[in-house]
Amino acid sequence: MRLLMVSATTYEMAPLLHFLEENAVRHSFFHFEFNHHTIHPLVTGVGMVNTALAMARSEYVKEVDLAIQMGVAGSFTPDLALGSVVEVTSDRFADLGVEEADGSFTDVYEMDLCEKDGYPFEDGWLKPGKQVLKSGLKEVRALTVNKVHGHAESIDRIVKKYNADIESMEGAAFFYACRLMDKKCLQIRAISNKVEPRNRAAWELAKAIDNLNGEIIRLIQQI
Question: DSSP string spanning 59-127?
Answer without folding.
Answer: TTGGG-SEEEEEEEEEESSTTS-TT-EEEEEEEEE-S-EEE-TTS-EEETTTTTSS-TTSTTEETTEE-
